[in-house]
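I hope you will forgive my troubling you with a question about protein structure. I set the record out below, with my sincere thanks for your time.
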Amino acid sequence: MGAQVITITSGKGGVGKTTAVANLAVALAADGQKVVCVDGDIGLRNLDVVMGLENRIVYDVVDVIEGRCRLRQAMIRDKRLPELYLIPAAQTRDKSAVSPSDMVRLCDELRGEVDWVIIDSPAGIERGFKNAIAPADRVIVLTNPEVSAVRDADRVIGILEAEEKGSPGLIINRLNPAMVRRHDMLSAEDVLDLLAVRLLGVVPEDENVIVATNRGVPVALDGKSRAGQAFRNIARRLKGEDVPFLDLDDQGTLWQKLSRLTGRKSS
């Protein structure tokens, strides 16, 4: 059957996409799946830092595509999880060094090696975005619950549907329940109403994420972090499991509302 190729994208930069890629990859690998992350952000390399692998880079994705190394040589094995690998982006090249067909070829080669390929797409809708979505079996759009991010996410969803990539899944990142209650932030329900795509998960605002990212230890490895739990739940949903949404506002209402909106039974 081969690997599933998943691309995580967003309209706006800075919404937490790279952190989400690292955490979903870690959660899948910790669950016994073989995973390779591909940093699609040519020129601005970050996924290696979030994963704590920046000191181990020898080759990058452009080296593979231009034939300077074999695919295996560019796959950096994670320090903690032997089933997790990273193919880093090239820092020194411009975005035209890679084409959509290059990415399709690369991912086709990876399909026979692993269970999951997770691509970190650069923000926006330029060349790097087209490269990142070209090989994808599924695309996930990440947004924060703020108007500008949701508007950009809506634009990306329109492009994905026009490119016949199907309707993407949605992750809402950095939701702050106290701000939602004060009407200072869009609720998950508001975001779903605006974007009308299938919700894969809601990740709460959690200061553990910043600490973990700075240390190069994805928060999905932290059993006490609520954001880590949310990422682990999303990873299970990617595998097809039916996992209830976390009750972020501790009032039993969020899951019921989301159930209505996503057409799923509360459990």
Observations:
- Residues 142 and 171 are 5 Å apart (CA to CA).
- The longest strand covers residues 169-175.
- The mean pLDDT is 91.
